[in-house]
Amino acid sequence: MTAQRFRCRVTGAILSLLAGMPTAAFAHPHIFVDAKFEAVASADGTLRELRDTWHFDEFFSSSVVVDFDKNGNSTLDPGELTAVARTVRDSLAQYNYYTNITVNGKAVRLAKPDVIHASYENGALVLSFSQKPAEKTPLTGLIVFGVYDSSLYTALDFLKDDDLKTSGEGFKRCTRKVVRPNSDEILAANQAMLTTLFFSDPQGTNYSQIVATRLEVRC
């Protein structure tokens, strides 16, 4: 039961369905994450791996403690953190761990993380993990990296541009920029289109792609 409740909180879309309300109808995040992301390239110019670190807000973190604190000491011990990480690894697989990559417009498939590391620091749950491309991925043309929840239930924020990084020999020949769309301007300029998107995609997938912060790399 604990794992099931946690999955509902993390995935958001499931919780919205249980509540009978499409997420995009209110589009208010309920979980807030300070995120860091790093794309690593190999010397041969291919994508090696992606590294994510998520710091969850204190309110959500405290709810995780309530669900997983088996010994009642008001914190998360190593064994309890392992259970949290295992639950996240299983439940977010169908959402690609909120990680979206395209190379010249074509989506890149990612393998499931071997392991997710969890810690509890100053009242906040912290998760870190890495993913590798499912197949060899040359870094040529326009590569777009985005980390966002398409259900709009979880807000993954990159506080500084430096929180979206590239590293490795293969990226030295590339240029990069962080794009932060203005959601208010997008809403004002595209109200009719977004209304249509809502009815065709009530989970908000298209809208979330439009407004999400992203890292664009040209090689």
Pick out its properties:
30% helix; alpha+beta; five-stranded antiparallel sheet; 11 strands; six-stranded mixed sheet
3D structure, described in words:
The chain is built from 7 helices and 11 strands. It starts with a helix and ends with a strand. It has 219 residues and is an alpha+beta fold. The chain has one domain (2-218). It is globular, with a radius of gyration of 18 Å. It is 30% helix and 30% strand. The model is unreliable at 11-27 and 197-205 (pLDDT under 50). A hairpin with a 5-residue loop joins strand 1 (31-41) and strand 2 (47-56). Helix 1 packs across helix 4. Strands 1, 2, 5, 6, 8 and 9 form a 6-stranded mixed beta sheet that branches. Strands 4-3-7-11-10 form a 5-stranded antiparallel beta sheet, with no helix packed on it.
Summarize this entry quickly.
By secondary structure, the chain is an alpha+beta fold.
Distance between the termini: 47 Å
As a percent range, the share of strand residues is: 25-35%
Helix-strand string: HHEEHHEEEEEEEEHHHE
What structural category do the secondary elements indicate?
A: alpha+beta
- Total of domains: 1
Categorize the overall geometry. globular
Instruction: Please tally the helical runs, counting DSSP H or I stretches of 4 or more residues.
Output: 7
Q: Work out the number of β strands.
A: 11
Taking pLDDT < 50 over at least 5 consecutive residues as the criterion, the unreliable ranges are: 11-27, 197-205
Explain the layout of strands and helices:
Layout: H1 2-11, H2 13-19, E1 31-41, E2 47-56, H3 58-68, H4 78-91, E3 99-103, E4 106-107, E5 116-121, E6 124-131, E7 142-147, E8 154-157, E9 164-167, E10 175-179, H5 183-189, H6 191-200, H7 205-211, E11 214-218
Parallel strand pairs: 1-8, 1-9
Antiparallel strand pairs: 1-2, 2-6, 3-4, 3-7, 5-6, 7-11, 10-11
